[in-house]
Write a structure and sequence with these properties.
By secondary structure, the chain is of the alpha+beta class. Among the domains are: about 1-35; about 190-205 and about 505-585; about 230-250 and about 380-490; about 270-375, Chitinase A, domain 3. Helices cover about 55% and strands about 15% of the residues. β1 (about 40-45) and β2 (about 50) form a beta hairpin. α9 packs across α23 and α10 (about 210-220) packs across α21. The chain is extended.
């Protein structure tokens, strides 16, 4: 099918034109979009369906956010069914809370929105030296998320409104000291125990399986002895660096950029100032602030009358102890180093000026500007290399979309080779051998990229040796590959894996022998407690790190303390068996005041989180939230881990 499309591109374009245009005429573009976007419903909230397409888009967005936060994250972790299901649950939660916010008429005022945007560190970093917002960078921030500034602000407003649904519980949660201490004492309870261990490793020497038994195990468990499918591939990558190589900046553009930006490129102006501070916290009572202001006014009049006495007045009266000893001197500083009111005043003054009172969160400042250090203008030759690099980067970013389209079309239209697109765009063809669908530990680059591997091991690439589509393997990076040699997954011959088979059989039977021995001892010691032979007692608890297996600690603390001493048996999940005698409860040492305070705060957080989840559960019921896809079954590894716990 795809071969026909590739060979008859013009015919197919004509047919598509004849089919698609009438559909626009008859149904309209909006109807066409609705038809395209329809998908099987995977969940429902308040009568509104969540489609498979919305789920896929939300998961893709989540993966991209995680990759943006940590470029080294292994994205294949997010391909697991459990990870995808978690995304669906988050999507349902968002819908439930959004409907609750709408139902409860929780809105966000313009003032609240403005305050939140101003407090956002990313947006704060976009402020120009004069304090105004760099609108162009702000537009770029919104565009990077596929939105206009208005759309970005609407989303923030929506998020703030939705947050109010849970804020009432989260911000007011508390726990009384009495119940908290009861729960914490139970959680951190300590018990004295004696542990007899029956380890699988101690029984391995007693297991001697025959070749027939090994072959029987091998045939019954061939899936354990598979060699993964492998491919040798070649690939081409388009990124900003490869686009830069094709860009040549002429000398006139370099000089023009230098002339327009020389002040910025030469460095930032620095200023030196001294100050006198009268402390007044921003949350101080009005009377205290007024008193501090009056004192600052007195000092201001004093230094205005005798400017040369500024250093002496600062030494005796400034409440900034760090600078007072130096006559209030703050040394040189650039923009961004001081609080905003102080910076704005200092950079608006002339050398030798004494400011009016400047109020900040610390109190009232009197500033004397003592020096201005203007940066030395750097020559064109000094800055030429950095200017050229900047301009190449800017042009590469603008040109990347155009080149990406040529790259995407090229690998598709000439699907039997990567050479044409590599020659056209001057890209290097690279090769990798031994590529597997699930990369081994330590593998990096495209051979470890989940999206690229899915394309490489797709039927079109494996069976027909066609180029893959252009896959986004990183921001501003597209990769296309093709399989040059493929080896399918296969069961390894018994002779090749005989040692592994024997190891598994011995481990399984040794674990069985250890468990039987331990269970027999448990029964005998319960019948005749005096006959129990147990090692020295140890104390175990949840908050003490020990060499005792976590399964044993959990079983010990779960046992009924009403009838101690008591014997319990613990299966160590393939590692053997343990018989534990629980002698007594050991009182928990009284925590120091600071530790107790932290423990109670942690308990309050747990309690608040539990209350919030219960509230969310009520909201789910109220808005009739339901998931219409099955929860993914746990993997064998997860099941084993659960059993071990």
């Amino acid at each position: 099918m795809f071969d026909f499309v590739r060979k008859h591109t013009k015919i197919m374009m004509g047919l598509m034109f004849m089919l698609i245009i009438p559909s626009f005429v008859l149904f309209g573009i909006n109807s066409y979009d609705r038809l395209r976007d329809k998908g099987e419903a995977v969940a429902r909230v308040g009568g509104q369906d969540i489609s498979q397409g919305e789920w896929d888009a939300a998961h893709k967005s989540q993966v991209e956010r995680m990759r943006a936060q940590d470029p080294n994250v292994d994205v294949k972790l997010f391909d697991a069914p459990e990870a995808r299901y978690a995304t669906l649950e988050r999507l349902i939660r968002e819908r439930v809370l959004a409907q609750a916010a709408d139902k409860f008429k929780l809105t966000t005022s313009d003032a609240r929105l403005a305050r939140d945007l101003q407090e956002d560190p990313t947006i704060a970093a976009m402020r120009l030296p004069n304090g105004k917002l760099d609108i162009e960078r702000y537009r770029q921030l919104a565009a990077s998320q596929g939105m206009t500034p208005e759309g970005f602000e609407a989303r923030v407003r929506h998020d703030l409104s939705v947050r109010q649904v849970e804020a009432g519980l989260i911000n007011t949660g508390f726990s009384a000291a009495g119940p908290a201490d009861v729960a914490l004492n139970a959680f951190f309870e300590r018990r004295e125990v004696q542990i007899a261990s029956f380890l699988s490793s101690d029984f391995a020497a007693k297991v001697a399986p025959t070749d027939a038994e090994l072959e029987t195990f091998y045939k019954a468990n061939e899936a354990m002895f598979q060699a993964a499918e492998q491919a040798s591939i070649e690939y081409v990558m388009l990124d900003l660096e490869s686009v830069k190589k094709s860009i040549v900046i002429n000398e006139a553009d370099l000089k023009s950029y230098y002339e327009q930006n020389v002040a910025r490129l030469s460095g930032n102006e620095e200023r030196r100032a001294s100050h006198i501070l009268v402390n007044a916290a921003k949350d101080a009572p009005a009377a205290d602030k007024q008193k501090a202001k009056a004192r600052a006014e007195e000092l201001l009049q004093q230094v205005r009358k005798a400017p040369d006495s500024f250093a002496e007045v600062a030494k005796k009266n400034s409440q900034d102890t760090g600078s007072a000893v130096n006559g209030g001197d703050l040394d040189y500083f650039g923009r961004g180093a001081m609080v905003k009111p102080f910076e704005s005043a200092a950079f608006a003054m002339k050398k030798g000026d004494i400011s009016d009172l400047v109020e900040s969160d610390f109190g009232y400042h009197i500033i004397k500007l003592t020096d201005i250090k203007a940066p030395k203008q750097r020559s064109f030759e000094e800055l030429r290399a950095s200017i050229e690099a900047d301009l190449k980067t800017q042009q590469a970013q603008r040109k990347f979309a155009e080149t990406a389209e040529a790259f995407t079309n090229g690998v598709y239209e000439q699907s039997d080779s990567l050479k044409p697109v590599a020659d056209k765009l001057k890209l290097e063809i690279k090769s990798v051998a031994g590529v597997t669908r699930k990369p081994a530990a330590g593998v990096t680059g495209v051979a470890a990229n989940a999206k690229f591997l899915a394309a490489i091991f797709g039927p079109d690439a494996v069976q027909k040796k066609h180029n893959t589509e252009a896959v986004e393997t990183a921001p501003n990076q597209l990769t296309a590959g093709r399989v040059t040699q493929y080896v399918a997954a296969r069961t390894l011959p018994f002779a090749e894996v005989r040692a592994q088979v024997r190891e598994r059989v011995v481990a399984a039977r040794a674990a069985e022998l250890a468990k039987k021995e331990g269970a027999d001892k448990l029964a005998a010691w319960k019948a005749a407690p005096a006959s129990a032979v147990l090692p020295t007692a140890v104390v175990v608890s949840r908050d003490q790190a020990t060499t005792v297996a976590p399964q044993v600690v959990a079983a010990v603390l779960r046992a009924d303390a009403a009838s101690l001493p008591a014997l319990v048996g613990v299966n160590l999940a393939g590692q053997g068996y343990a018989v534990v005698r629980i002698n007594k409860i050991v009182p928990r040492a009284a925590p120091v005041a600071e530790a107790l305070k932290q423990d109670r705060a942690q308990y309050a957080q747990w309690w608040t989180a539990a209350e919030n989840e219960a509230y969310y559960g009520l909201l789910k019921d109220r808005f009739k939230a339901e998931i219409m896809v099955a929860h993914p079954a746990r993997s064998a590894a997860d099941a084993a881990l659960a059993a071990a716990r």
